[in-house]
Input
Amino acid sequence: MISILVYGIISTLVKRMKRLFLKENYESKLNLIETEIAIKFVKDYFERELANALHLTRVSAPLFVLPSTGLNDELNGTERRVSFQIKGIEESVEIVQSLAKWKRNALAKYQFPAESGLYTDMNAIRRDEQLDSLHSAYVDQWDWEKIILKEERTLAYLKDTVRTIYDVLKNTEKKIHEKFVKLECVLPKEIYFITTKELECLYPDFSPVERERAICKEKGAVFLMQIGLPLSNGAPHDGRASDYDDWELNGDLLVYYEELDIALELSSMGIRVDEISILKQIEQKHEEYKLNTPYVKNIVSKKLPYTIGGGIGQSRICMFFLKKVHIGEVQAAIWSDEDIERLKCKNIYLL
Output
C-alpha cells in the first residue's frame, strides 16, 4: 500500500513530466492581433458572468504572504515556494501558490453575508513547473470563494455550483463563436459527474491521466469528484492539500480538448474543510505540524465561515476557447530557446 504522502509526490512528478505537443500541420485560427483581442474578450466576459452567477464581489489580493500565517497553499506538498526578503520585515515572504486559504480569511474579515462571496485575479510563480504545452511558471487564474451554511456542505450543493460555472463556460463559448465564427462550439449540453473510485472501476488498468482522457473523450465535459480519497491501492487519484478542500466534496472540472487529444483541466474547486474533516485529513497525511498555524486553529475553533471555492485558469480557458495548442500562445511567459525553436518549426508562435 502506497502512503498518501508518497503517492502525492509520485503523482506530482508524473504530472510534471514534460508534454510538449508538436502538432502536425497546425495553423492558428486567429492571428496575433486577433488573439490578443479574443483573450481580453474571453476574460472580460467570463469574469463578469461568473461574478453575477455566483454573487461574487471583486477584491484585491496579495502576491505574497508571510509563511507563519499558514495562508500559503501547499498544493501537493512537494512544490518549492518562491521566497524573498523585504526591507524592514524580519520574516521572509513567499509568493502565493494559490489563495485558497487567504480567501476564507478575507470573507470573515470583510464580513460577507451568507450566499455571497469574492473573486480575485491570482498571479503566482511556480518555480517547479515542468514547462510544456500546458504548464507555465507563471500562473494566472480567477480565485473565488463563497460563504455557505453548514447544512449546505453537501454533494448536491457542490453539483449545483459546478453546473452554474459550467453554464458560464458554455455561454462564454457561444459569445466567442459569435465574435469569431471560425471558433466552433464543442462543449456538450451537460457536464458529467463521476468520482475517482467510479472512474477507477471503469478503467482499472489505466493511469490517472489515461482515465481522465478516456472519460473526457466519451463525455466531453466531466467533473471528477473526491480527489484526495484513497483508491483500491490506498493512494489517491491525485494529491490534494489536507487543509482546504474536503476530499469528500471536491473535484476538477475537465474537458476533452480535441486539438491535443487530452483531458484539459479548467478548474479545481470544492467545499472547504470544516472543524471535523480538517483534523481527519491532516492526520491522514501526517501533517500534524499544521495544527499550530493560525489558519487551522481558526477552522477548528469555528472562527472562519463555511465556504465553497476554487480556482479557474485564465490562460487555460483562453487556450481552450481559442483552439490554441500551447499555453504560451495566450500568455507572455518564459520558455527555453530550444522549445521556442521546436514550436516555431511547427508553426506555433508564442506571445
About this structure: The two ends are 45 Å apart (CA to CA). Residues 252 and 268 are 4 Å apart (CA to CA). DSSP finds ten helices and eleven strands in the chain.
